[in-house]
Fold this sequence. Notes:
Helices cover 58% and strands 15% of the residues. By secondary structure, it is of the alpha+beta class. Strands 3-4-6-5 form a 4-stranded antiparallel beta sheet. Strands 1-2 form a two-stranded antiparallel ribbon. The model has no long low-confidence stretch (mean pLDDT 89). Keywords: Protein biosynthesis.
Amino acid sequence: MDLILQFKQNAQKVIDSLKENLKSIRTGRANPSLIENLLVETYGGSTKLRLMELSTITTSGPSLLVIAPFDPSILADIEKAILKSPLSLSPAVQGNQIIITIPPLSAEQRDKFVKLIGSTVEQKKVNIRNQRDDIRKKIKTQFENKKISEDEKFRLEKEVDNISQRFMEEIETIKEKKINEVLEV
């Protein structure tokens, strides 16, 4: 497989993973992605499913989440999972639905989430740097084994560095956007 293509695909997986990780970081606004991946133990603890597999999750205004389980008998299981989660949310059962009011973030919570975003982003940057270094080693090995010329080696290394730089810039853009969402009052 082409080394450059392999690097691009792996780096894109890192970006996708970052976006997925950041979805679960709370902002001051109601968003179904905040809770959709919560694991819920249902049917007497025999099954563990993600909340999005058990219900529809919608927003009602900027600060309300409405969870409508497909099977109303699991309302209590969903409520328990939300209470046990690290999100500090208070679910309220109303009929066959669960309503969650997303409280505004305190300054302290905002700072904590900004730090969490920073560390998550840094892990992903390290991941991309490691991948870049691995690809550069492979290019060097190909050159040493006389499979590519010196010019080709330099061209590939430059291309890998440029691609790496583009992914780093994309990560920074994602980071800034998420931080702005968290800091938005």
